[in-house]
Amino acid sequence: MSKAKPIQYIDRASGKTCTESVMGNKALNFAYNTLLGRSLWGLLFNTGFLSRLMGWFYDSKLSHNSIKSLLAIPGLNAGEAEKDWHEYRSFNDFFTRKLKNGARPAAVGNDVLCSPADGRLLIYPDVEKDVKIPVKGAVRSLESLCAMELPAQKYSVAVIRLAPIDYHRYHYPCDCNDDGKMIKVKGKYHSVNPIAFAKAPDLFVENTKVVTPLCSPVFGKFFFLEVGAFGVGSIVNTAVAGKHEKLDEKGFFKFGGSTVILVMDAEKIKFDPDLIRNSANKVEMLVRCGEKIGIAK
User: What is the mean pLDDT of residues 251-255?
Assistant: First the structure.
């Protein structure tokens, strides 16, 4: 069995290059890097049966002891959680944990765009609606990703990939209005880990997702996407329609690797230089929810 290369990213806070500890690494390598595994894609990823079954287990009390396997992965800061891990009812109860007050402060400034989630971020600046996202290997366009016809203009796209150890609630990145017109797109359940991208580069388009049009007085109209993945019991949007302040909670993912994508008007946003520079080299940067990732033009 051929093995995928180690996944490396830069921790933005420390500037250090880190190697990601992948939960279920052997299973991912089997599914994506062996002939037998790829022959089972229809069963594994094309229906939600296994993901729903996993969701049932991780929602049940039977899964409580599985929390320890997550805590054992380097990089998870259990001390940020509202409660001690023993107090959570199930694995998913801990996985979708809220954090203590002040754990994720919002960067100050009406013209500042915050990261909507903890995760490993890549920026695709100044792209047309027919450009493929991700650029390497994909055949589906940005317009296909958004599941709607887009105006002919330049867009800047931020892709935040969440790993199982991350805080799995996501938030509004700026003051904005949500009219509640979410588009729910049923699809496949591929992993969003880079191991999967090497074999299924169109998974952002193909996977189950939710697309929410938002409107900001500073950043104009933009789109907020939540992309589901293998093992994700559900994408749960907790916010109601109306005006929201920066870092108000929008929702959360249950267990599984997941991704949040912002599709912004390129004329309205200037993403931070370090993010642009590393993204140009295909290097993800670990960001935390609430930290500045861009500023209004």
Answer: 90
Write the pLDDT tens digit of every residue in 192-222. Answer: 666 665 666 677 887 889 999 999 999 999 9
118 is catalytic: yes
Active site residue 258: yes
The residue from 63, 156, 171, 279 that is catalytic is: 171
Q: Which of 93, 118, 166, 178 is catalytic?
A: 118
Rg (CA), the chain: 18
pLDDT for residue 257: 63
> Do 119 and 286 meet the contact criterion of CB atoms below 8 Å apart?
yes
How many residues does this entry show for the chain?
297
Phi and psi, residue 209, nearest 5°: -155, 165
The reported pTM is: 0.88
206 by Cβ neighbours in 10 Å (0-12 / 13-18 / 19+) ranks as buried
